């Protein structure tokens, strides 16, 4: 009910730019340019956690971009999902690389159940759906495979160090029953709205890789080859934004 009301009210009530607060527009040209005006780039947090896939981000998480993401996630500005999806689509293209056989499978990192209840929606999933639509409009076969779910409760990540976030999320995600079949035959790209320490993407990559290993091990013949092929398909991730320091990839 809350999500439905937020979408309807956004159509009939006065709006302000989600980035800078300018009146009578959901997103002004200047703030849209901050999201869409720069080519997606590879990002790496410092320290870079083991198991982190190659990650591309569309924008730096600061100023207008930060405000837009928070407006969508925390303040129910659901109309911003479209432009955030456009930004994510650019990062997905960069992460996926050259076209291959099969569709692009966008696998969103799920929010905690209590966060979804409090917000009335799952931000990463909503943005992923918009990104898949944008990719299809521009000629790329893309779909959302929302196969990840939390199998145990986790603590609030805010205030935790990078190491504490990894420990907090370790083993927290799994691929839902039957989800492995939805991942077959495509190029998997993990997607999220934001990367800070990379802990969420590490755990998502582990969960997807684990189901691939299980599936490969259940098939006779050449399980090692199957495992290698599955790992190759899941070694990429894309986010709308990442912290400024993570764009500085040429470190000594």
TrEMBL record:
InterPro entries: ComF/GntX_DNA_util-trans (IPR051910), PRTase-like (IPR029057), PRTase_dom (IPR000836). Transmembrane segments: none annotated. CDD domains: PRTases_typeI. It comes from the Bacteria. Gene3D superfamilies: 3.40.50.2020. Belongs to the ComF/GntX family. This is ComF family protein. The lineage of its organism: Bacteria, Bacillati, Actinomycetota, Actinomycetes, Kitasatosporales.
């Amino acid at each position: 009910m809350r999500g439905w009301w937020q979408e309807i009210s956004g159509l009939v009530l006065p709006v302000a730019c989600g980035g800078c607060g300018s009146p009578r527009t959901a997103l002004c040209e200047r703030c849209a340019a901050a999201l869409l005006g720069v080519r997606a780039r590879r990002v790496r947090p410092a320290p870079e956690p083991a198991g982190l896939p190659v990650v591309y981000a569309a924008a730096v998480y600061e100023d207008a971009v930060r405000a837009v993401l928070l407006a969508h996630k925390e303040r129910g500005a659901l109309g911003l999902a479209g432009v955030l999806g456009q930004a994510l689509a650019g990062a997905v293209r960069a992460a996926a690389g050259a076209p291959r056989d099969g569709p692009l499978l966008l696998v969103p990192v799920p929010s905690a159940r209590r966060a979804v209840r409090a917000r009335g929606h799952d931000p990463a999933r909503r943005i992923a759906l918009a990104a898949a639509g944008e990719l299809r409009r521009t000629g790329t076969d893309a779909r959302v495979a929302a196969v990840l779910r939390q199998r145990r409760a986790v603590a609030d990540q805010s205030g935790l160090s990078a190491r504490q976030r990894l420990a907090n999320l370790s083993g927290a995600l799994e691929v839902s029953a039957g989800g492995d079949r939805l991942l077959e035959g495509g190029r998997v790209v993990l997607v999220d709205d934001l990367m800070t320490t990379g802990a969420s993407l590490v755990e998502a990559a582990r969960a997807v890789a684990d189901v691939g290993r299980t599936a490969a091990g259940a098939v006779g013949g050449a399980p090692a080859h199957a495992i290698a092929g599955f790992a190759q398909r899941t070694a990429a991730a894309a986010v709308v934004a990442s912290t400024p320091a993570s764009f500085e990839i040429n470190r000594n």
